[in-house]
Design a protein that fits this description.
single chain; mainly alpha
């Protein structure tokens, strides 16, 4: 059981470290989104995918360790959570505290990643709205009807709506 506990704590610490890397990449992505730097955004997304792959592997390993612990403790696998393990370790306060600490660190890191990702999502939505607005504006300028824009000699200039500007000499 002690080796399983050490494995679990090590996996959780590794997950926390990878989520920390993901948080740093997300912070970098925030500025890249603001700068509208698409090539840099592509690089960051590739790095994020690498980190996400590592996190997935660590998560699979954590689940395996927890299943093994459930078998050793003769507990139901579905209801076997970190909180259950922490409660089970009441006779081993040192391990219990280590597990509580790593759980809290992971929880804090995940909250940071979630917060940054929500901000990035808002920025991306705003950028998409701006692009859509620009596209709509360009489409309307191209298909706008000819208007009665007259020059100072009362001749129709035949310019498209919005293309003539304001003649301050009139």
């Amino acid at each position: 059981m002690a080796s399983l506990m050490d494995d679990l704590i090590q996996v959780l610490e590794n997950e926390n470290e990878e989520y920390g890397k993901l948080a740093e990449l997300s912070k970098e992505k925030k500025q890249v989104i603001i700068d509208a730097n698409v090539p840099a955004l592509e690089k960051i997304v590739d790095l994020e995918q690498d980190v996400a792959s590592k996190i997935q592997n660590l998560d699979n390993h954590r689940q395996k360790v927890m299943r093994d612990m459930a078998v050793v403790l003769n507990k139901a696998g579905d209801d076997f959570t970190l909180d259950t393990i922490i409660e089970t370790l009441s006779s081993q306060p040192k391990e219990q505290e280590r597990l509580q600490n790593v759980k809290q660190q992971l929880k804090t890191t995940l909250a940071e990643v979630r917060n940054i990702n929500e901000q990035n999502q808002t920025l991306l939505n705003q950028a998409l709205e701006l692009v859509e607005f620009d596209l709509t504006l360009f489409r309307s300028m191209r298909t706008a009807p000819e208007t009665a824009n007259y020059n100072k000699n009362a001749y129709n200039t035949g310019e498209i709506l919005g293309g003539g500007g304001f003649d301050a000499k009139q």
